[in-house]
Specification:
The complex is a heterodimer of chains A (123) and B (106). With 123 residues, chain A is an all-beta fold. Helix content of chain A is 0%, strand content 50%. With 106 residues, chain B is mainly beta. Chain B is globular and about 40 Å long. The chains are: A mainly beta (123), B mainly beta (106).
Chain lengths: 123, 106
């Protein structure tokens, strides 16, 4: 079964850091680009970041550029999101998602989604 | 920054056709994808590359994209199709989602 399981969310104070992880199973992880998409409570979907199969390309939304870093470890079938200088507006459910059609990170759809891990930024 | 605009809500009677639009500048020059999200669940891809259906998605879901508008059509809408629907496209190496449309099956 194809599965993505996120971990690492929690309550954190503004300005602090947090690292999210996503464990992938059921598919050849290093064949696909991977992404993080977040959803604030009661709000819509917002793409956060994407990474190509070999980490050669990383992209970020303007709202997180310079504060968040996406990475992956293909040997561990894992995706990560390092979040620094967290702000209250970063409060959201963070989903790990798989690119549908292959190793490219851009111009792809998101065909597998994890259940998400909740990040709450509050003092 | 690039924006995709969707109507906040669409109502449809069971068995009828629901059409959800997604508007963006020269959207027809890009690929549009559509996602279905039910309360408390993660999104599900229902259409990609404008009109392709992933494996397991019913044939009643179809898509088109031309000019500035992409459209998701649900033919013979069923109660189980009641959900939020999001369009998505890429612009300048950034994935952009529309604001979402709540489909109510009355």
């Amino acid at each position: 079964e194809v599965q993505l399981v996120e971990r690492g969310g929690g309550l954190v104070q503004p300005g602090r850091s947090l690292r999210l992880s996503c464990a992938a199973s059921g598919f050849t992880f290093d064949d696909y680009g991977m992404h993080w998409v977040r959803q604030a409570p009661g709000k819509g979907l917002e793409w956060v970041s994407g990474i190509s199969w070999n980490s050669g390309i990383t992209d970020y939304a303007d709202s997180v550029k310079g504060r968040f870093t996406i990475s992956r470890d293909n040997a561990k079938n894992s995706l990560y999101l390092h979040m620094n200088s967290l702000r209250p507006e970063d409060t959201a459910l963070y989903h790990c998602t798989k690119g549908k059609e292959g190793a490219a990170v851009r111009n792809d759809a998101f065909d597998i989604w994890g259940q998400g891990t909740m990040v709450t930024v509050s003092s | 920054s690039y924006e995709l605009t969707q109507p906040p809500s669409v109502s449809v009677s069971p068995g009828q056709t629901a059409s959800i639009t997604c508007s963006g500048d020269k959207l027809g020059d890009k690929y549009a994808s559509w996602y279905q999200q039910k309360p408390g669940h993660s999104p599900v891809l229902v259409i990609y590359k404008d009109s392709k259906r992933p494996s397991g998605i019913p044939e009643r879901f179809s898509g088109s994209n031309s000019g500035n508008t992409a459209t998701l059509t649900i033919s013979g809408t069923q109660a189980i199709d009641e959900a939020d629907y999001y369009c998505q496209a890429w612009d300048s190496n950034t994935a952009v989602f529309g604001g979402g449309t709540k489909v109510t099956v009355l």
